[in-house]
Design brief:
The chain has about 350 residues and is an alpha/beta fold. It has a domain of about 160 residues: Rossmann fold (3-Layer(aba) Sandwich). Helix content is about 30%, strand content about 15%. The strands form 2 sheets. It has a 9-stranded mixed beta sheet with strand order 3-2-4-7-1-8-9-10-11, sandwiched between helices. The protein has a two-stranded antiparallel ribbon with strand order 5-6. Helix 8 packs across helix 9. The longest helix has about 35 residues. It starts with about 35 loop residues before the first strand and ends in a 12-residue tail after the last helix.
Length: about 350
């Protein structure tokens, strides 16, 4: 077999957009993500996700200088009874009941953040134009002057004194940090069987387009990282007791677009086989089985698989804190479907 380069289709886009969130911890799960947490009741799903959020929001020298997320929302009927898990990482005002259009409500919050960012970018552009004209002794037209004053970018005293006004301030400004668009996360918990999520257009939209939710008028590129974002985007964590079900639950569209998943010990052979087949089709069924067996040796243990991690060695984790290094397998091994047993262990 040989591969021969063709002289066609050689023109590539001038700029690339990945919409990844700014994160100082390269070994964290890549966000924004679609993350499913699959485990029976009391397996440790809420504990694990709240641990992730607590770490993501930790501001500490040598860890991170600002929280990863500016806003975290939760859709759940049980927020208050699980307050010990959620209250320090998700404020009660960001709790949404699983009612009609609940997911759309959170998406609207994302769109509101995009509008605020667009307004700030326009103000910043207008401000720099004012400063340019003042520094070059160019007169502002009456309309420009009135518009600048209406926006609060300039006052009469500064203009008459030819004094450069202070720049507009981003409402999420953090001292000594680069201004950036909001980074947001949504947790859906204890919503199995909730009709509000059955055929939810908002959830379907997130399953297909979570990185592109709430687009900006113009892409923004970070001066610090050089990465470009064209939308607010939204990380979604879906906690569920079953991987497949009839009715409200993780839809096929959501499952097929997952970027990561955490799976706890499951004693239902058919469901475990479904998980192996779907998730293993991406990372190799045998590799997934090996990682799963290692992870569930511990009580409340789970395997977390990330399909495109920043670090290939972190494709599999036990929980969140430990890497499980599983070597690449041959094509024949990858095709093999691991057998399951009532103990919830694959062999």
């Amino acid at each position: 077999m040989s591969v021969v380069a063709l002289g066609t289709y050689g023109t590539e886009p001038q700029n690339t957009v990945d919409n990844k969130y700014d994160n100082e911890q390269a070994d964290d799960i890549v966000a924004p993500f679609l993350w499913a947490c699959v485990g029976i009741r009391a397996s440790g799903k809420s504990y694990t996700v709240s641990t992730y959020l607590r770490w993501s929001q930790t501001v500490k020298k040598g860890v991170r200088s600002r929280p990863l997320y500016d806003e975290v929302y939760i859709i759940s009927p049980s927020y208050k009874s699980n307050r010990d898990y959620w209250s320090d990482v998700i404020p009660e005002e960001n709790w949404v009941l699983p009612e009609m259009c609940c997911v759309e409500h959170v998406i609207e919050k994302c769109e509101e953040e995009a509008r605020k960012w667009d307004d700030y970018q326009r103000e910043l552009k207008a401000y720099h134009e004012i400063v340019r004209k003042m520094q070059s002794n160019t007169e502002l037209s009456e309309d420009e002057l009135m518009a600048a004053m209406a926006q609060g970018l300039l006052n009469a005293e500064d203009w008459l004194a030819k004094r450069v006004p202070p720049p507009p301030v981003w409402e999420r400004h953090i001292e000594n940090e680069e201004d950036r668009p909001a980074q947001m996360c949504l947790v859906i918990d204890d919503c199995l069987g909730q009709n509000a999520l059955l055929n939810s257009t908002g959830l379907m939209r997130l399953a297909c387009l979570n990185r592109h939710v709430a687009p900006f008028e113009e892409p923004w590129t970070s001066k610090r990282t050089g990465k470009t974002r064209s939308a607010i985007g939204l990380s979604l964590v879906y906690l569920t007791q079953t991987y497949r079900c009839q009715g409200p639950g993780p839809s096929r569209t959501l499952r097929e677009n997952l970027t990561c998943a955490s799976v706890w010990r499951n004693r239902q052979p058919k469901m475990l086989q479904s998980i192996v087949e779907e998730l293993g089709s991406i990372v190799g069924q045998r590799r997934f089985a090996l990682a799963y067996n290692e992870a569930v040796k511990e009580p409340h243990g789970c395997v977390t698989v990330e399909f495109k991690p920043n670090n290939p060695d972190l494709q599999f984790r036990r929980g969140l804190k430990e890497a499980i290094i599983v070597p690449e397998t041959s094509a024949d091994e990858t095709k093999a479907v691991a057998a399951t047993s009532a103990s919830g262990v694959m062999r």
